[in-house]
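lol ok so funny story. i was supposed to be doing the assay writeup but got distracted and ended up predicting the structure for this chain instead. priorities right. anyway since i did it might as well share w the group, maybe its usefull for someone
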Amino acid sequence: MPPMLLPPKRAIIPVTQGRWNSITLASSHAGPVRTLKASSSLDAEEIEFNGDERDFILSILRAKPSIRDTKSYLASFNPPKSIPTTTPTPATAVSKDDSLSQLQNNANLAAGVSLINELIDPVHRRTALVKLQGPFTDRQLESVARGMVYLEKLGLVSVVVVENDEWEPGSEMEREEAVEDAMRVVAALEAQGARARPVLDTIVRLGPNPNDERLCEASGNDSSGVWTPEAHSLAEDLTHIRSALQASEIPVLPALALDSFCRSVRISANDVIAALTPTMVEVGTTLDTSSPSAKKTVDMTPLRLMIVNREGGVPSYARSGLPHLLVNLSSEYEHIWDTFLPQWRSSHPTALGNLALARTCLSYMPRTSSAVMVSHRSPSSLIANLITNKPAQSSSLPHALLSGAKKLTRDTPTLFRYGLPIRVIRKAEEIDKKKMTALLEQSFVKTLDYDAFWKRVDNTLDFAIIAGDYKGGAIVTREAIPSLPSNTSETPRTMAYLDKFAVLPSHQGDGTVDFLWVALHDESYGLGTQFARNFIEGSMQGLGRGEDLVWRSRGDNPVNKWYYERSSGHLKMGEKGEWVLFWCDAEDRLKAMENAIRSGNDASESLPEVIRTKKGPVIRGPGFVVAEEQGRLDKWARIVNKIPSSWVKK
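and the output, tada:
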């Protein structure tokens, strides 16, 4: 069956599944191949960097950081604040005869040089806990090692724990095998120009930490997400790691622990990393001021958790087994366990274990931290994650947009944020109006017309979505669609209107916006599809029929670019186009239209129309406006124009 050809805006709606995906994706594997200098038989996917310094710069540019991303990245590596003391020297002193323009030029030049130096060789360094989950070939390990060297140049020093999925439990040579693999990683890092130090002494101890109340209350590992690591560490155990970091070396640890008989035994790397995380957070910033060579501070609080493996990210049933892009561990963890298909336990045997590791570690790490699970074929994703702290593609994009240049593959990384719990409220009296008002006013930087706004919401509320303790929220109302005078007996109809969508400034850029929009999709225009089966508190759990979602935004709103990517279409309103009307088509309705065309039961065509293109035959999809949609934009515009402003006029 040939694929279906849709108009440009229709093409962003995920109306294609199953056979179409298998056809259209089959032709997208070809591409340019990059190889090493003397590797004629090299798999291009196994090596992403070629060692050229230009690769380092290109890997940064490919991340495409926004202004907010850049500021956040620089803020993470700012040195501790101190009172500057400056004394003019002959080289920097300025005479009274110097012109103001010359002073400005010198200042700009100095600032530019300083910024470049801070980016490439930052004074304040951060750490990342890295799990290398092999086995890897020499070429694969070379690529991964180069990625960690690039991270070090950007100020993120890896604390590496090595594991091999092919190790046999209980082997007589288990310690020797662990040490051998660790030394192999050290050699690979040093071959890329890094300074690495093998930490072969056991620095974690078997058994849970008796001083950690959270772990003492947990037991085992189950679908509710409770996982107790089998090891712990104390602050004095980190001496070797601290020493390596202060010497600008990358510590590499085998997965070993000290048992009750003071024997060194091999354990899971997950237990080692989970044991190190709370202790490294406790130790925090460290600087040996007694050492004259210690000029740089190293914050031992982990900024990232990076899991590099051969499996890639956590598979998603909604993406036909392709990885999740972004996971809100506070609200999606149990759902991922419940929907993990049996066949994935063979293809992704460690995915759930790594998921539990991410949740445990992020519960200790700062809320700005994240974890990423990535295939060895995508080491550049580590750099993109460091700079942007975002997934490879936004998880709130329409599913059909995640193709072509944005296509998802089995090697697409999964990003984890500890996130916020999401819940849906369907009764206006259950909304904390004071907290919601504070959220809206801080987000929009305007004063809410409290009485008028809440009176309208009380009468028209469909549902509200709340993130955390009102850190973000969305309000959807039911707006009446006037019936024609000739149809007085017609059942009153309504439309779903997105009245407010807001996130606190302090949570913008941390994934909350995407978490909110995905929940909004699941409760409105995505309802009734397989993508909407996210079981959050108060949700429809994917059961029901989707409906079009409409909202408006001022024409000069900088967020409109984000709306353009997620909407089915837009219409400018007002005499001068000062407003933009956006809408998202109900996805289950579009799916039904597609099925009708494929089966030849469409009212306008007896048989599907097949068009010959350069890429092969395709079926013409539904038009941009079908019969049942005639005049709907005019109706929506008239209704939206009558909705009063929510803000106090200045």
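Residues 105 and 111 are 10 Å apart (CA to CA). The mean pLDDT is 77.
back to the writeup now i swear
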